[in-house]
Amino acid sequence: xxxxxxxxxxxxxxxxxxxxxxxxxxxxxxxxxxxxxxxxxxxxxxxxxxxxxxxxxxxxxxxxxxxxxxxxxxxxxxxxxxxxxxxxxxxxxxxxxxxxxxxxxxxxxxxxxxxxxxxxxxxxxxxxxxxxxxxxxxxxxxxxxxxxxxxxxxxxxxxxxxxxxxxxxxxxxxxxxxxxxxxxxxxxxxxxxxxxxxxxxxxxxxxxxxxxxxxxxxxxxxxxxxxxxxxxxxxxxxxxxxxxxxxxxxxxxxxxxxxxxxxxxxxxxxxxxxxxxxxxxxxxxxxxxxxxxxxxxxxxxxxxxxxxxxxxxxxxxxxxxxxxxxxxxxxxxxxxxxxxxxxxxxxxxxxxxxxxxxxxxxxxxxxxxxxxxxxxxxxxxxxxxxxxxxxxxxxxxxxxxxxxxxxxxxxxxxxxxxxxxxxxxxxxxxxxxxxxxxxxxxxxxxxxxxxxxx
Length: 454
What we know:
Mean pLDDT is 81; it is low at 116-124, 425-438 and 444-449. The radius of gyration is 24 Å and the shape is globular. The chain has two domains: 2-104 and 269-360, no CATH class; 121-234 and 373-420, no CATH class. It is built from 21 helices and no strands. The N and C termini lie far apart (53 Å). By secondary structure, the chain is an all-alpha fold.
C-alpha cells in the first residue's frame, strides 16, 4: 500500500510541477508527510524514515515558500519558473530511484530479544577503554587549539590545510562523540551507577569538544544522531522524524548565527528563508545561469568522491560544478549546497539522479538489516548508525564538503565499536557443559530432533 501511494504521489507531484513549481514542491511535501505516516511499523526501513525527513526539511516546503516569496540567495537574483521546474524534476527522479530499489523488499521482522551474552558482554573493560579513548581524543584537540577553541567566524592569520582540520579537529571531536554514544548505550543496558557515571563524564567531554560555537554542524549531526537512531528509530519513529526536523529547521539557523553569521554582521533568518535551505535554489541557479556541460560520464561524481586525496592527486579536478566560471560570475561565493543528484545529472543526464537514488537505496538495504537496538554493540553496528546519520548532510551536499565528515565519523565508529566489543566474553551454560563432560550431547541433540539416539 505504501509503495502504491508513493508512485501515485510522485505522478501527482510531476503534474503539479509542470503547472507551477510551487505546487510541485507542495505535492512533494504532502507525499513525504504521507510516507512518514505510513512508516510507523517497527520493521519498516530506517533509511526511508531518514530519507523522507530530509526531503521534508530541504526539498519540499522550503523551496515552495522561497519561490512563492521571490527569495533569492547569494546575490543571484530571481530565477525563472523553468529552472525551478527542471530542478524539481531532478528531485523527483532521485526519489523514484530510491523507491525503485525497494520494490519487492519484504518488511524487516521485529527486533529480536537481547541475549544475555550480548547484554553482559564486557561489563567493566569497555567503560575504561572508552573513557580512556575519549580523554585521549579530547586531549588531542589541544594540539591545535586554534582549530578547536576559536569561533568559526574568526578568520585565522594562516590558512590551515584541510588535512589539518581532519586530523587535529574533525576526527578527535567525532571520536569523543562516538565514545559518548557507545557509553550511553552501555549505560542504558547495564543500568549501574558506574555505567551512568562513565556516560555522564563522556557527555561532559563531548559537550566541551563539540561546542556549537566552534564546531561544524555536520560534526554534531554525525556524532549525536546515531544515539537517537539507536534509541527511537525502531520504536518512536515519528518522534525521530520530528526531532530531526526541529533540530535542523529550528535550531540550525540559530547555531549558524551565534557561531559565524553574527560576526559578519548578518541577522537571523529562520526556516525556510535561511541560507541553510538553499539547495534547490542552487540547482535551479546552475541550470539557468551556467551553460549546459557535456556529459561527464561519471567524472563529476569521481571528482567529488576523491575528497580524501591531496589536491594535486584529486581525480578530474576540472569536473567540479562549483568551480565553473559561471558560479563565480553569478554567485557571491562558491561554498554552496549542491545535492549529489544534481552532480549525477551533470554526469548522466536525466538518468543520473534515478541511478544514484537506486544505488544508494540498494546499499542502505544492508544497513537497514543491521540497525537493531538490541544488537551487540560492535564496530559494524556503530558504522551503520553513522552512515544513516551522515545521509542527512549528504543530501544537502556538496559531496566534496560532506566527505571528510562522513569518513571521520566512520573512523570514530570503528574505534569506539572495536573498544566496546574488545573484551566480549562468552557466557557458558552450565547444563550444556555438564552434558559435554558426560558425553551425552549426541543423545541430547537426537532427542531434540525427535529421532532415536544411536
